[in-house]
């Protein structure tokens, strides 16, 4: 649809703008920015065809740092704006970036409908379990008990869970990544990009200023191996140092358990194979929060179906509208002549 | 007085009426809207000018026979230009007691009631709140009543048709229509043709409907009571030659927006969330895919506004619509459109408020919201349509301004305009309109900057994603002049505020100067209106001019910015009367803008002005000024 | 907290107002109204302590017909208003009524957060898969392809599913009922009422004017037995005429299947027992949409946890605020005396 | 001119200054807010009147050394009543080059710069955008510079303490504070006591901080360069006796709202969603559970407004707060509160716009939104606070009006007031306030009807769920007079519209008449302000009065309805000047209300007015009027 200039291979730096990046030093957002720039370079994205849309928040400053088209909209509404962009031009490659507040507090309704409608975008939710930009109030994903300026006695709400929410919303691609293992994140982002329809990726992100270490128990180097499991479709779900651990169903129950190969008679064959099209398993993987079970990383669920924008584009087709055609329309039906 | 006064035979043509007002009223299930629509068509074909107004119940379908389930359709037609739906009804057709009790107030004294006496059962009388049968107890002595057992007459008429009794009863509206067509000397041809289309393939139903219609018509001519039945002659009006059709405001808006897009060579992305009385626009546009109109029913009004902004960002004409409460929800998003200077058309079909208010009733009380209702200094143009067919032209103007000035534009219509219909001389889209510039999207710019403004319009360039070389970033945080990068610089903020204000103010020089649409160019009294008060004001001024009173009618299309010459024009009058279906919003707004000392005439009942209400207020001012 | 007048037993009619009910004749809402009035009478509800809150829509007219306290708010916001009511007075017995548009379109975000926070209310979602009040546009629950004034070519969206949405939101009580079997609905409503925390009940409701028969395949008398399954905690999940059919897990799979006792070697013992605290099973039951599997009715999931309003009330406690105390507060900290 | 002009030694007391302006500026991590806060306290204890203003960066914590990471704190203090934060800075303390480059513009010519020369490294100079070191290249010749290697001096001072080098460097702000305290003849006692509290249990850190503070103070007295260091004497101000504390607008609001609730004997349910600069109010109230304040952080602004409405419905004082864009989102809900006539306080902490705009900068551009920004005719009272401590009284007034008149009330504050602090004479809550009626909740009413109005206030009764016998239903659809049942009746709609308007208009008779707060009771020029422009206007008028110019200051607290006597008062002046931090909103509003011909002075830079800007505009008007 849009003509593109002759392809020349672009590197990650070709996707960086001249604007100074203004996150706090040490913020996890830096690594994610790098990861996204690398991903775009790797997939050979064309800057003129790529659009980043965000709401408001620290995470939402993202578009300013991407040398593509970018729209920093209003708090919570990125998904709605993006839907309009895709309806207007389904050929654009559209990435949405939002914080946990942006996406799951004020903006959760638009996210819900974007996922349900299956609009062909990549939605990256930077979850730092805090409102960063407004200086550290608890967010819908903050853990119960978290003390913040707006919850001096500890937050008293059951937190929202991004992945179960997305599954409940009917999302057809659901994945998780983190701000530390950038290579793995980049692989996940490539999968998200390749998926036609709404791809939802939760990215665990450290806010060094207001919620430092929120994911330490999952992301810290010494804990990561045991606390995370990296899913790969068609592969056994193994984790831990030397991949000695794995997931299986508790015998006779609809519950996962972590087992160690070689212990208690557990063999490699007992370990479940990851089938990313299995919605029930996706729900179980999404519910894993530690400490007994590792946190699922990578593509948890992927079961494509028709994308909304594409379906509409198909129905719209090429219409060749014209003033003449419109003249015919307004002259059709019951008319009469005077004089 | 409009309508009622003129059914008194016109002195010049003693056998002819200048205009008449007929209202059909019955239960929601009685098919009154259909009856009205068919009568309208026959009347238009007979060469009358006309205006119609359907009055639906707020309940979807209330229990049969209750007052809140009454549905009515009014038509005002005549031998002259018809401006209003008529103050008072001349002929009231009622299908049950509830229809009578809810509509009687609007019947002029001496007016005619045709009542389906068969439905005036004890049960129905009770449901309507009557203690005795008004057709019999003398309480209607001030009117002429013709009670007919229409149910029975209809059943008899279709007795030979192969249909159930329920189906038979359903045709009683056609019987009534036949009768009224006869009374006004219209024939049944148009309706018969329409029935044939509608019931093609359902031979039995078709036959019954035709039979009922013909029976009603025949009844007028042959029935024994025909002596009691008045026969009205309303000769054709003297209206400009051309091809005509009936059009509602919602249709005119839909087609006008599409025409504007065609002139700008832009696809339209229309994003909306249903709400009365705006939904009609969504419905009409949903069927216009062939004209590059894509409709999106969003999850709420905020999403609708945001999606429309997204569509404009991506190079389409983004349009969103709602009614007052929904427009309120869009407020924050409109700020974004103003800040990012993207084209957008926002249609507000106003209704009674505050809050949910009176969803099915009309009001024009969102002027303040349109002009002032946003946080911060956030100017945007505001236009208002005056009649159903005017919606077409105003919609084109909205698209023109939005794309030329890179700005959201608010277009005000209201519940009355949305539903009311009137004959529309179908324009020649190629010849009748000055075509404005094709799409303003830039594709090749050397040294491109997203906030580099056009020297004349102050509009920024419209560069859309997908265009090589023009990648840029915009957003709601204050943008640096020219580059559009985030800027917290104090002087830049002042500069950008000035740009935003001046860009919109500059539109005043790009719109048609204000005209006086009826009456002398200067004098004692001008009646200044906006929106759907056009009809009653215009008729009132016409009536007063005819009796030799020097009164003028000025009607605003552009609420913001105001036409540059408005102050000069108003200066020429001793008094300015501002009738509004709100608590005095234009009145106050013009005080602020022009320091105008005017008189406010307010009506907040959910109903349009009656012509005599305006005449009375005008007369009071004229008398007052005699005293001086 | 509030004094109540001496108890006298109230009947369903004592909960009816003098306002004429203004739904279309034949609307499913009438039956639900009856069912709710009966439920209130059965549980001995006190009108002065009972509040009905709704948004806007046909369903949302409900409060006007209940002789209790009632608040007909604005479209989509009933859950938010209700949260405020419960925070102000957690002792009130609060029912929310909303249509599918009210609840899952404009209001889905508030519903999400109400469920996540676990505010102690009963949320009744009248799902007629259409916008009734605004005259028949498709709603988020409308099936793809439905032709309406706003979707003349058929709706092109993947529909939202109320129960999976509620589960994804973290709801702790999720049930389904219908506008036909009022006795069963009333039992479900009693369970909802008894549950402390947010109770979510989807009620399938026929809109005779704009979407007649949308649930015919489930609710019609001749189909109901095979098309519905009525869940009872601790009981085998059986359905069909004479309860000959039942649900079991497909051997070796995370999938339910409907089987017939006595056929293919299936015995009563093969039929799964309903455990309403099993979240994974709840997800599978929620996903049953026919035709292979029956639609789940009754309590699908119930696993209580602390209610938000009660938790806050506990923290607030009895405070005995006073002007004196406030005077002390403003005089505390760094002060100095002049003159 | 405020601030700067007065640091020039006062002719009467050659050794004393009437007032001085000091600004501390450094990197976000340098602890400038803490330094400023401690200096403020010491100054208050020394008996000066003062005003302070923290200026945070918009970025949470930008990279060290960059200009957008600079954090500053300004204090204006003096021997007289201090009204503003000071136009120009007299003493600028900068901890790095970025702090210098971003703050230099505000330093008066001849002003003093104390710079941490140790941080003026090449790297930091480059980050700030300097090509050469300004401390050395002569570019600062117009000022007095005292470069000190504060880093080094601090390290030396704490060398004996048992702390890391990083920790040592962190105390350099205390060293600087010590020095500046010495310069202004304040002792270190207040700060030492505060340090002891803060670092109780951390003996090493405490020792280091104390050492740094004392070293800075001692340096002033003993260092070799002390001859260069000026010593300023600002004698105590003549302020009314009483117990004082420092208070920010946000604290004053929080306490005032709570005080209002206590007077009304109501619990408060405060529902909000974080947004700059309103969040502070949420934070303060979150800690006030002991005073029956329940805070709820909602999922968005709409939910916050709706939950507050729900709380009011259930018998608490529902309060919600936000800033412009968030208030926009609440619009529809406010319509519901107006329609259902429930008490509600809505706090708007205004910031720069439109859209996201300048979140951390101040502006007063939401007046239109407050008064007009709703669909339909939807009036509600609007109040505006003028100073940090005035927030307390205005908050009480808001609660009084909301509960007495059963109406939402909009309370306007702004980013400046939220963060600025000033000394506040702590009132006696029992004696200093006229206690308004206790809670207005009805419990026993014979023949109860939810829309049965009080004859005088027109308020409807407040009957809350849980009360036996008063069950009723309310909602947003138009309600019948008295019964509150749904009503589509036209006359009822007019009647209810009239009630809603008149109820709010009636408040004009229940509020304090407008006063002239400085200057003659009549004359050539009145300067009319609202909100946080109070300080600069008041000082400007004071200055002009001192030089013999007859100028008066009138400041509005009640924006809607306006005080009944306002027109009369304004009539007594030839000219009215209206300075506003917006594009002329009060100016336009008063044209609409009073047909007032005034002069508008607009400033939309995100910064408060400077005194001289107001003096200049006033002088121009006075000159113009001489010509006449
Ligand atoms: C309508 C509106 N409400 C509130 C805000 C204030 N606000 C800005 S960002 C934000 C939340 C930030 O949290 P999150 O989305 O998690 O992003 P983060 O900063 O943590 O990356 C809020 C409440 C706003 N800008 N607009
Ligand atoms: C802010 C706002 N937007 C839109 C509307 C119009 N509206 C009223 S009810 C409704 C949807 C009705 O559908 P649903 O909630 O499913 O209820 P039902 O009528 O089907 O019971 C809509 C769109 C409104 N009243 N307010
Ligand atoms: S506040 Fe937190 S999320 Fe925001 S930039 Fe700083 S570290 Fe990152
Ligand atoms: S429109 Fe449908 S849902 Fe609404 S009252 Fe009628 S039948 Fe019921
Ligand atoms: Mg966050
Ligand atoms: Mg519905």
From TrEMBL, chains A, C:
Residues 59-203 form the Thiamine pyrophosphate enzyme TPP-binding domain. Keywords: Oxidoreductase. SUPFAM superfamilies: Thiamin diphosphate-binding fold (THDP-binding) (SSF52518). InterPro entries: 2-oxoacid:Fd_oxidoreductase, THDP-binding, TPP_enzyme_TPP-bd. The keyword Nucleotide-binding does not apply. Pfam families: TPP_enzyme_C. One of its GO terms (biological process) is small molecule metabolic process. GO terms for molecular function: oxidoreductase activity, acting on the aldehyde or oxo group of donors, iron-sulfur protein as acceptor; thiamine pyrophosphate binding. This is 2-oxoglutarate ferredoxin oxidoreductase subunit beta. It comes from Aestuariispira insulae.
From TrEMBL, chains B, D:
GO terms for biological process: response to oxidative stress. The keyword Oxidoreductase applies. This is 2-oxoglutarate ferredoxin oxidoreductase subunit alpha. One of its GO terms (molecular function) is oxidoreductase activity, acting on the aldehyde or oxo group of donors. Residues 29-217 form the Pyruvate/ketoisovalerate oxidoreductase catalytic domain. Keywords: Oxidoreductase. It comes from Aestuariispira insulae. Residues 269-478 form the Pyruvate flavodoxin/ferredoxin oxidoreductase pyrimidine binding domain. The keyword Oxidoreductase applies. Signal peptide: none annotated. It comes from the Bacteria. Pfam families: POR (PF01558), POR_N (PF01855).
